[in-house]
Automatic annotation (TrEMBL):
Its EC number is 6.3.2.1. Transmembrane segments: none annotated. GO terms for molecular function: ATP binding; pantoate-beta-alanine ligase activity. Keywords: ATP-binding, Ligase, Nucleotide-binding, Pantothenate biosynthesis. Pathway: Cofactor biosynthesis; (R)-pantothenate biosynthesis; (R)-pantothenate from (R)-pantoate and beta-alanine: step 1/1. One of its GO terms (biological process) is pantothenate biosynthetic process. It is an enzyme of class 6 (ligase). This is pantoate--beta-alanine ligase (AMP-forming). It catalyses: (R)-pantoate + beta-alanine + ATP = (R)-pantothenate + AMP + diphosphate + H(+).
Length: 284
């Protein structure tokens, strides 16, 4: 497995694989089983699409431009050697782990703005977040030049905006969403979960439980808005849960349709740690 730490090294590696298909997964490290699932799905899906075994590249880069809170950036977990070992065990071909200086050798003068969608939901409370995400993802796409790049559906707004960016800017890369991987207790896998105490983790379980409550009620015939309001009240009543939003939207985060596929998205804080989750359900 190749360990690449500079722009020149990732460029030479990309040239070395030549016409071999390439599958990319972009991470900020602290890899967990959700990331390993991305790697496994990426390898299989790109092989199915291209008919050839792909070279799989994983980036590990804590991107400072997507953090509005310096404290959040400082406390973000970093475990590069462990991440490299996990990638090696998963059969990854190359890990790209650049420094901030490599990715941003000088102050950025050009960035990608996400438009109106970037100021809703996560963007409402995290100023500049999605501009930082889209800019670094665009850089990573152009450096790795993958056939497909894979992103988890847990960060659904991020996935949607990256897909829009690729489509509107005519980027020649396929963006593929991968379903959220959950812990055995239902909590969506996230590196932030490791910062929860045992008690906080139990409190956090109320977040996916609220989503399942909505799904079950809608499946039984309860109106979506009524189910949403009931779930908001449920979360508001849970000690230790600070609800930011619990909303519905279309699958492209447009206005909620009256029938068809709908996304339910939630963000809440537990023990000072922001947690997000979402599920899809069908309105008949």
């Amino acid at each position: 497995m190749h360990i690449l730490k500079t722009i020149d090294e990732i460029g030479m590696w990309r040239k070395s694989i030549d016409s071999q298909p390439c599958a990319a997964i972009f991470t900020m490290g602290a890899l967990h089983e959700g990331h390993i699932e991305l790697i496994n799905v990426a390898r299989k899906h790109t092989r199915d699409v291209t008919g050839r075994d792909p070279a799989v590249v994983v980036s590990v880069f804590v991107n400072p431009t997507q953090f509005s809170d310096p404290g959040d950036l400082e406390s973000y977990p970093r475990s590069l050697e462990t991440d490299i070992a996990k990638c090696r065990s998963a059969g990854v071909d190359a890990v790209f782990a650049p420094s901030v200086q490599q990715m941003y050798p000088e102050m950025l003068q050009v960035s990608i703005e996400p438009g109106p969608l970037g100021s809703t939901l996560e963007g409402r409370s995290r100023a500049g977040h999605f501009s930082g995400v889209l800019t670094v993802v665009n850089k990573l796409l152009n450096l790795t030049q993958p056939n497909q790049a894979y992103f988890g559906e847990k960060d659904y707004q991020q996935l949607t905006l990256i897909s829009v960016m690729a489509r509107e800017l005519n980027l020649p890369y396929e963006i593929v969403g991968v379903p959220t991987v959950r812990e055995s207790d239902g909590l969506a896998m996230s590196s932030r979960n490791n910062r929860l105490s045992a008690e906080g983790r139990l409190v956090a379980l109320n977040i996916p439980q609220a989503l399942y409550k909505i799904r079950d009620e809608v499946d039984s015939g309860v109106a979506l808005q009524q189910a949403l309001e009931g779930a908001r009240k449920y979360l508001d009543q849970q000690p230790g849960v600070e609800l930011d939003y619990l909303v519905s939207a279309g699958t492209q985060l447009q206005e909620t349709p009256s029938v068809g596929a709908v996304r339910i998205l939630v963000a809440a804080t537990v023990e000072g740690i922001r947690l997000i989750d979402n599920i899809e359900l069908e309105i008949s």
